[in-house]
Design brief:
Layout lengths: L11 H11 L15 H13 L5 E5 L7 H15 L9 E5 L3 H7 L2 E6 L2 E7 H4 L6 H15 L5
Helix pairs in contact: 1-2, 2-3
Length: about 150
């Protein structure tokens, strides 16, 4: 992947090592990907995505199918990629998901798209102030469309 993403040959080994370390894969670096758990395979995908230090990462449903422990670990990894603690590259992470509790657990800013239109673009804290859930916010912004739809549509 480092070669495909045009990491200079001279720096590939270091780039791969850093990506493996950041994604918690150093201990399994010699194992066949197909023999890894789904959580580790998700980590491999993240390592592949960051090996060339892109400024922006777009992640589509990164925790689907994972057990609760793996979900926690992947969320922590995403948080670390967005706000690294020690000198590593910081990435802007765009999370694409329909699982709103996932958004509440990971994101700081929310853009809700309904029927191809942006209906919300605000900081999460602003949207959920007063104890509202993101599901309530989404329902509020899409209720008018549901009221106009014929039954069975």
């Amino acid at each position: 992947m480092a070669k495909l993403k045009d990491v200079p040959r001279k720096g590939r080994r270091e780039a791969v090592s850093q990506a493996l370390e950041r994604c918690g894969l150093a201990d399994v670096r010699r194992r066949v990907i197909g023999a890894l758990s789904k959580g580790y395979r998700q980590r491999v995908g993240l390592a592949q995505a960051i090996v060339h230090s892109p400024p922006v990462l777009i992640l589509d449903e990164p925790t689907v199918g994972l057990d609760p422990t793996q979900i926690r670990e992947i969320r922590a990894l995403i948080a670390e990629l967005a706000a690294p603690k020690g000198g590593e590259t910081q990435h802007t992470v765009i999370l694409s998901t329909h699982i709103l509790p996932e958004v509440e657990a990971i994101c700081r800013r929310v853009i809700l798209i309904h029927r191809g239109r942006k209906v919300v673009d605000s900081p999460l804290a602003e949207l959920t102030q007063g104890g509202r859930s993101l599901e309530q916010v989404f329902a509020q912004h899409t209720a008018r469309d549901l009221a106009v739809q014929p039954v069975g549509a």
